[in-house]
Amino acid sequence: MEPATTTSLGRAPPQLVGGWEAGLLMFLALLYFGGAIVNPAFFGSTEALHALLRDTSRVGIIAVGMTFVIVNRDLDLSVGSTYGLVAVVFARLFAPNFLDFGVIQSVILCVLLGTAIGLINGVLVTVLKVPAFIATLTMLFIGRGFVLALTHGQAIYYSDKAKDHPLFFHLGEANLLGFNNQIAIFFFVAMVGAYVLAKTRWGYESFATGGNEQAAVYAGIRTGWVRIRAYLLSSLCATLAALLSAAQDKGVTPLYGVSWELTVIASVVIGGASILGGRGRVIGSCLGAAVVVLIDKVLREGWPITRTVVIDGENVSVGAKFTLPAGAVLVFLGLLLVIAVLIEPILIRRQVAARLWAWLRGRPPPPAYEMGGVAIEGVQTKGAMAADMALSATGLGKFLARRDALAIILTVVLWLTGLVLRPDYWWNLPNTFAILLNYTELALITVGLTYVIAAGDIDLSVGAVLALAGSTAAYFLKVLGADPFSAVTMGLLAGVAAGAVNAMVVVGFKLPAFIATLGMFYIARGLAAWFVAGQQLTGWPEGYNLLGRKVNDVLLYFGLALPPGIIRTVAEVVSIQTIWMFFIAVIAGIMLAYTPFGLKVCAAGGNVRAAAYAGINTNRVRFVSLMLSALCATMAGIINVAYFRSFNPVAGQFRELDAIASVIIGGGSIFGGYGTMIGSLAGAAVITLLRALLQLNVQGFSMPQHWINVFIGVILIVAVLIDIWVRQANIFGCLRTRLRRGAPTGDSSHG
User: Fold this and answer.
1) Cα distance between residue 163 and residue 170, in whole Å
2) DSSP 383
3) Which of 239, 286, 417, 503 is disulfide-compatible with 626, CB 3.0–4.6 A?
4) Please, which pLDDT band fits residue 374 given cuts at 50, 70 and 90?
5) How far apart, in whole angstroms, are the C-alpha atoms of residue 272 and residue 20?
6) Is the pLDDT of residue 750 over 60?
């Protein structure tokens, strides 16, 4: 009997360092050499290399923690706001004009804050089952709101007091060897992180959890704790980076950490980690951070040029520097994130480099990576429990069992609350319709986002697409002097193009929707600032502004005057944009509820595999939904410019948070499979009324805007938890069942 033969798949891939890191080193050297050619005055000096390593240190430290999160198949979008918030809290604790604490007390409290943020993220994702991108995105907005609220938009400095504590603040300065201490700390953190991930049980558990969580559970790994641990590491790394920044700058500004989550995620993915989990190396992430920081420096530093100026009739050549306009760097970083994530399916999983090398040496190609990652995939239609309850109920219970009943009830309660608090303001018809104007923009965005969420996807770019469409229209009106029709057309084309890119990347390249639309979030926001050079534009023909005017104003513009009466009164308060929004909402609501396409949207979101087996082209459904979302955001952007008669680059800020909260409060499921237009519109009304109530001046008190954004972020988390635990898991029904089983029946016999 011949012995059994086995086929070897070759050596296991190295977990500490490998060929990918060697390629990154080569690319980094070429990139730096290119920067030295373009701008030798900066990149040709040793100071530039030292500055690159110093700035890479803070990004690299955060990337170490992020590597553990991404290897676990999770994501942490809150690291930028955690970095900024910890730095701001340290400044307020330590600065003599605030709390005037000592260094040790300030550092301890900041570490506790970072630990709390990591625990909150981990518990939300693992225990409370909130999707990672929603939980950490909300923490991003909440943290950013705290930063702006605590700084009041102003910088905080403490350089004089820092002189009394040289031991701590020396961490941000050069040492006796001539290099910054942050570089040494970064190398230490990187080496420890690399060893832990590659050679310890913690690392093995992370790879197992990210590669196949269900199999890891069967193997006895506490995957919940593994994921919480990764979020703790990520948050603590961001805390350490913030403290090093506080030691270096001896102050803080409200812009600390802005878009750093984008930089860090791009660094980790460029370093070879898989956004689908199960693969990643800390050394690669650190090299990826160096690549991203170097690209950022090359773009920001610009390159020297010679300009000719006329002085007293003579041409004089002067040295100058060409730099990219405002927003351009953000565009490139957004593109970098999308391209980095595309490396995964196109290069790494297909092993293009290894196959090419094997072909050149005449050897057989290496085995392909496993394309799966989940041994047993759950097949469950979301929202079935809530749907069954609604069908079996009768009378008032039938309404209360509806998923959108909560939003409708809250809308009525909030409106009545405003009436009680300020009847002089709330009952005034013009003021009521002023609130309605604020509602119109959010409602229009929510209409399109309802389709995306019902189809099981997400669109984080709606606020940025709104800004992109508005900036395009404003640019054509103000700079190019285009007519209103041309400006509207170009704004529509810009916004729809952004939606088409989202749809193609999500559907065509199979990227997670939250990653693709997160990249577009930064790209569109950067393009919006780029077009207008970061400035506010205003002053164009009134014919364009009619899109945001009252009905009576439009009639008067065309020479039509209504007679006094109820019709004129209504025409004086109702806006064209409100009428347009309700028109779009009615059409979209009918399509979603009563047409085959609407049923396909919910089927694809509820169970994409079953929908495909039923013959539904799920790719087409998701593509159209993402396009519709972009179209609605585009229309909101065009109307925004007309309503305000100007364009501000911050237009649409936080609108994605408001819109997602509106859909979820309105009964939509964050997991897909359900959504109603009435519910989403009611959810948008809840958010609008909450903002109006929080801004209401009651006996001389009104809440600052930045705290309102924190409050809305908390509402989003609560809405998602209600969707998961009340609508999906029916936790109250399960609790009632357990109580009934445990209650005495009263007919037991006693012997």
Assistant:
1) 10
2) T
3) 503
4) very low
5) 7
6) no
Q: Return d(Cα 112, Cα 62) in angstroms, integer.
A: 17
| pLDDT for 136 beyond 60 | yes
For residue 309, the SS3 value is: strand
Locate 27 and state its tokens: 């690319």
CA distances from 536 to 255, 370, 552 (A): 19, 51, 28
Do residues 442 and 606 lie in contact, with contact meaning Cβ atoms separated by under 8 Å?
no
Return the amino acid letter for 745: T
Encoded tokens for 64:
């170490």
Beta-carbon-side half-sphere exposure of residue 86 (alpha carbons within 13 Å): 31
Reported as a single tens digit per residue, the pLDDT across 609-620 is 899 999 999 999
For the ranges 320-334, 367-381, 611-625, the maximum mean pLDDT occurs at 611-625
CB 327 within 8 A of CB 528: yes
Measured distance CA(662)–CA(660) in Å, rounded: 5
Of 605, 588, 667, nearest in space to 387 by CA: 667
pLDDT value at 10 more than 70: no
Q: What stretch of H or E contains 324?
A: none
Angstrom distance (rounded) from CA 710 to CA 84: 15
Residue for token digits 């940025």?
464
**φ, ψ dihedrals at 314, nearest 5°:** -115, 145
Q: How far apart are CA 650 and CA 464, in angstroms?
A: 9
CB distance 82 to 114 below 8 Å: yes
Torsion of CA 643, 649, 652, 654, to 10 degrees: -140
Once rounded to an integer, what is the mean pLDDT over residues 10-22? 68
Q: What is the tens place of the pLDDT at every residue in 68-106? A: 999 999 999 999 999 999 999 999 999 999 999 999 999
Torsions phi, psi of 511, nearest 5? -80, 150
User: Tens digits of per-residue pLDDT, 40-62?
Assistant: 777 777 787 888 899 899 999 99
Q: How far apart are CA 686 and CA 413, in angstroms?
A: 9
Half-sphere exposure of 358 (CA within 13 A, CB side): 10
Is 17 in contact with 281 (CB distance < 8 Å)? yes
Contact 663, 688 (CB under 8 A): no
Q: Could you give the CA distance from residue 364 to residue 360 in angstroms, rounded to a whole number?
A: 10
Closest to 64 (Cα-Cα) out of 271, 333, 297, 249? 271
Q: Coil, strand, or helix at residue 259?
A: coil
CA distance 208 to 203: 9
User: How many Cβ atoms are within 10 Å of 530's Cβ, its own excluded?
Assistant: 21
pLDDT of res. 304: 67
Average pLDDT score over residue span 317-327: 69
Rounded to a whole number of angstroms, the distance between the first and last alpha carbons of the chain is: 72
Structure tokens at 335: 């593109």
For residue 538, what is the enclosing H or E element? strand 537-538
Other C-beta atoms closer than 10 Å to the C-beta of 14 total 12
Instruction: Look at residues 437, 445, 452 and name the one whose alpha carbon lies nearest to residue 469.
Output: 445
pLDDT in tens, 163-187: 989 999 999 888 777 788 999 999 9
3-class state of residue 682 by DSSP: helix
CA distance 76 to 569: 51
Q: How far is Cα of residue 280 from the mean position of the Cα atoms in its chain?
A: 22
Q: What is the mean pLDDT of residues 382-409?
A: 66
Structure confidence at residue 379 (pLDDT)? 39
